[in-house]
Specification:
3 strands; 3 helices; about 45% helix; alpha/beta; about 80 residues
Length: about 80
């Protein structure tokens, strides 16, 4: 991740409010980490934003699993 840029991790980003939140944040120039439990759905939805020219980054996340949260934290730190 770019240390000088603002970063937003959005949960449940593959549909609805989460998806639109990612779109709007990315349009503002914020680095968006697009997350969802289901990697295939998350990557497909992130691909739609990539087609719009928005530079979101996908990472799987299951907020009910501590290990998943830790993996996301490590990903954002790097």
């Amino acid at each position: 991740m770019n240390a000088s840029k603002k970063v937003a991790a959005v949960t449940g980003a593959n549909r609805g409010l989460g998806f639109e939140t990612c779109r709007q944040l990315a349009r503002l120039g914020i680095q968006v980490v697009f997350t969802s439990r289901d990697p295939s759905k998350g990557q497909a939805a992130a691909g739609k934003l990539h087609e719009e020219g928005l530079p979101v980054v996908y990472h799987p996340l299951d907020v009910t699993r501590f290990e998943s949260i830790e993996h996301l934290a490590q990903f954002v730190r790097c």
